[in-house]
Amino acid sequence: MGKRKTQRKNATMLDSDDDNSSVSSSSTTRSDRMSVSASEEVEFNKDSLLDEAVDALYEKRGSTREKALAVIIEAFNSNLQQGQQFVERKFATLLHQCLNSIKKGSSKEISLASHTIGLLALTVGPGDNAREILEESMIPLSQAFKSGSDPSKTASLLECMAVITFVGGDDPEDTEKSMQIIWQVVHPKLGSNVVAVKPSAAVITAVVSAWSFLLTTMDGWRLSPKLWQESITYLSSLLDKDDRSVRIAAGEALAVIFEMGSLEKFAAETKGSSDGSVSEGNKSKEGFSYIQGLKGKILNQVRDLSVEAGGKGSAKKDLNNQRNLFKDVLEFLEDCYSPNTSMKIGGDLLQTSSWSQLIQLNFLRCFLAGGFTKHMQENEFLQDIFGFTPNKRNLLGSEHMSNGEKRMYKSPNSALNKARTQLLNKQRMLSAGRNFGHYAVNVGDEDS
Question: Coiled coil: which residue ranges (predicted)?
Answer without folding.
Answer: none
